[in-house]
TrEMBL record:
Region (Disordered): 643-665
The keyword Oxidoreductase is assigned to this record: no
Keywords: Carbohydrate metabolism, Glycogen biosynthesis, Glycogen metabolism, Glycosyltransferase, Transferase
Protein species of origin: Kaistella carnis
Residue stretches making up the Glycosyl hydrolase family 13 catalytic domain: 156-518
Encoding gene (name): glgB
Protein name: 1,4-alpha-glucan branching enzyme GlgB
Length: 665
């Protein structure tokens, strides 16, 4: 015991809050902290293991002997073991030797460790999150960037497979090497935010980071905590927000992780009906345990505080909220009211949102939630869960089902694109085309599209235009911006060589122009979450597979019209407009610069006939399988001519030519 000195960072108030479940900055107390005691430098350790018989610190410094550096149990029955060990420094490897009441010695990583090793042993490292930030301009102004009245176009990415070295395809780029390449790319493409799939430490690459062992550690695959901070800092300095995937839903059963931490079911439910996830073979947090709630909310605070994250996308919320998620009858236990809602998880998520928004009011929390759970993005004081946004999974499924359908049969699926408008303003929605849609045999987005090469690319451009002009924030998974042909493979870099082909380069340019249009035109985002920002002009023309709607900003004359022609025909189409307005085409997805067929979207006539319940009309030439965006302008003393719209031939010869310009990869 002489090798460990009594020392504590905890106050009585800390212990009270921890045991009550409302201490949200536990990372300032738990873990390994460099301190000086009586003029001697060393490290203070503390860990929660209330059912342990003995807890020691083991590592290279004591040849991994569990009896050399035994920690002191606190007198207050909090279950915390702590103590000071002199001579240790940053970079030293350690674990906790936890002797259970059954006299079994467990070797556990530190739940609050700031770094972990990358090997089978996977020990924790004495580390620090000290960093000299210089992103003050971004941080002071990010409230506007994260506002619901601001454009949000998110680039979702997996750091290990976004880009790798050309000399060694198996080599990861470091956080700093990624920064060198990612920052100019995001600036060029016009995305407002990036979203990193989990950067917390995880042992198993095929989990993509969603099975975490080191909840407070930036994965050392790509460098140190400071290297990740450098990446985030550089993004901020270039006016790019950073969202992090956060996984409070489950954790793996690795021997050195949270599972059975002190010889008991400490962080997880003991009852497998609540504590074991049948799909992922992982363990579910006990949200009703106050100390576990403090751990999780402290973890959220940590990434917002120490890493300057601008928001958290909370993974697998549906599985958290539903006791019967992925379970058959008899495999789950109803709540006290006989329902299937996990009341403890619901309360945890409410407390989480209240806590993080109180501390960081300028961040955003986003729920990945696929059910119709009510009031997810409504304030907690109104009975809601308190998220800032929710992924619109129903929109994603309906949209992909529609676009997968052959154009000749789309009239039978017409309502798949109109149904979303019935509920789009019930929550604050984000439109996701995420990693989940391009794995496990689902095919890449480009290969979900029907038809030959020309039709596939035309369809995908139209889909993206529909997404960017639909109410709600946007999210696009990496590689989709240039129509990656293979399914996403987490073991390899994206197929950047595809940009040598005009169809892929054209897709990239189209997404770039969409992003910049979205950020420029206030009508596309100011009323993203209000019915005032959207109006159908034509929602029922299933025979022609034509959709027409308006997007509106806060100013009365800030109006855009979106026209989708989702068949491979070129024809003139009569559209009702308000009197005294004229329209300019500002985007045409069929332009040759996007590898389209080059059919010009032009207003070929104007009429004074009442049409579509509007006093006047325009006749617009519709390119094939294309989206056209027009901007309204006021035009006094306008001359109106009366004409008749005529349908023209189907797919133009120019489209056929364009399809032959390149060969599929």
């Amino acid at each position: 015991m002489d090798n460990v000195l009594p020392y504590s960072l905890f106050t009585e108030h800390d212990i009270y809050l921890f045991r009550e479940g409302s201490h949200y900055k536990l990372y300032e107390k738990f873990g390994a902290h460099s301190v000086t005691v009586n003029g001697v430098e060393g490290v203070y350790f503390s860990v929660w293991a209330p059912h342990a018989k003995q807890v020691s610190v083991i590592g290279d410094f004591n040849q991994w002997h569990s009896e050399t550096h035994v920690l002191f149990p606190r007198w207050d029955e909090s279950g915390i073991w702590e103590g000071f060990i002199s001579g240790l420094k940053w970079g030293d490897v350690y674990k906790y030797g936890i002797r259970t009441n059954k006299d079994v010695l467990l070797e556990k990583g530190d739940p609050f460790a700031l770094s972990w090793e990358q090997n089978l042993q996977a020990g924790s490292l004495v580390s620090t999150t000290w960093f000299e930030w210089n992103d003050g301009d971004w941080m002071s102004g990010r409230a506007k960037k994260n506002s619901l009245q601001a454009p949000m176009a998110v680039y979702e990415m997996h750091l290990a497979s976004w880009m790798r070295g050309t000399d060694d395809p198996t080599k990861f780029f470091s956080y700093r090497e990624i920064a060198e390449r990612l920052v100019p790319y995001i600036k060029e493409m016009g995305f407002t935010h990036v979203e990193f799939m989990p950067v917390m430490e995880y042992p198993y690459d095929p989990s993509w980071g969603y099975q975490i062992t080191g909840f407070f550690a930036a994965t050392s695959r790509f460098g140190s905590p400071q290297d990740l901070m450098f990446l985030i800092n550089e993004l901020h300095r270039n006016d790019i927000g950073v969202l992090l995937d956060w996984v409070p839903s489950h954790f793996p059963g690795d021997a050195n992780g949270l599972h059975f931490f002190d010889g008991t079911f400490l962080y997880e439910h003991e009852d497998p009906r609540k504590g074991f996830h049948p799909d992922w073979k992982s363990y579910i947090f006990n949200y009703g345990r106050p100390e576990v709630k403090s751990f999780l909310i402290s973890n959220a605070m940590f990434w917002l505080d120490r890493y300057h994250a601008d928001g958290l996308r909370v993974d697998a919320v549906t599985s958290m909220l539903h006791l019967d998620y992925s379970r058959n009858e008899g495999e789950w236990e109803p709540n006290i009211y006989g329902g299937n809602v996990n009341l403890e998880a619901k309360k945890f998520l409410q407390d989480f949102n209240v806590a993080v928004y109180k501390e960081f009011p300028d961040i955003i929390t986003i729920a990945e939630e696929s059910s119709d759970f009510p009031l997810l993005t409504k304030p907690v004081y109104d009975g809601g869960i308190g998220f800032g946004m929710k992924w619109m999974m129903g929109w994603m499924h309906d949209t992909l089902k529609y676009f997968k359908t052959d154009p000749q049969a789309r009239k039978l699926e017409h309502n798949k694109l109109t149904f979303g408008s019935m509920y789009v303003f019930n929550e604050n929605y984000m439109m996701p085309l995420s990693h989940d849609e391009v794995v496990h045999g689902k095919a890449s987005l480009i290969y979900k599209m029907p038809g030959d090469e020309w039709q596939k690319f035309a369809n995908l451009r139209a889909l993206y235009a529909y997404m960017y002009t639909h109410p709600g924030a946007k999210l696009l998974f990496m590689g989709n911006e240039f129509a990656q042909t293979h399914e996403w493979d987490f073991t390899k870099s994206l197929d950047w060589h595809l940009l040598e082909y005009p169809v892929h380069a054209g897709m990239k340019k189209f997404v770039k122009d969409l992003n910049h249009l979205y950020r420029k035109e206030t009508g596309l985002y100011e009323n993203n979450f209000s019915p005032d920002g959207f109006e159908w002009v034509e929602a029922n023309d299933d025979n022609n597979s034509v959709f027409i709607y308006l997007r509106k900003g806060k100013q009365a004359d800030d109006v855009l019209m979106v026209v989708l022609n989702l068949t491979p025909r070129v024809f003139d189409y009569k559209i009702g407009v308000n009197e005294g307005t004229n329209w300019d085409v500002i985007l045409n997805s069929d332009e040759e610069k996007y590898a389209g067929s080059g059919v010009e979207a032009e207003i070929v006539d104007e009429e004074d006939d009442e049409w579509m319940y509007r006093p006047n009309a325009i006749v617009l030439k519709l390119p094939p399988l294309a989206a056209v965006v027009l901007k309204q302008k006021r035009a006094p003393n306008k001359v109106i001519r009366k004409t008749v719209a005529k349908e023209k031939s189907a797919r133009p010869k120019t489209a056929s030519k364009s399809a032959d310009k390149t060969k599929p990869v």
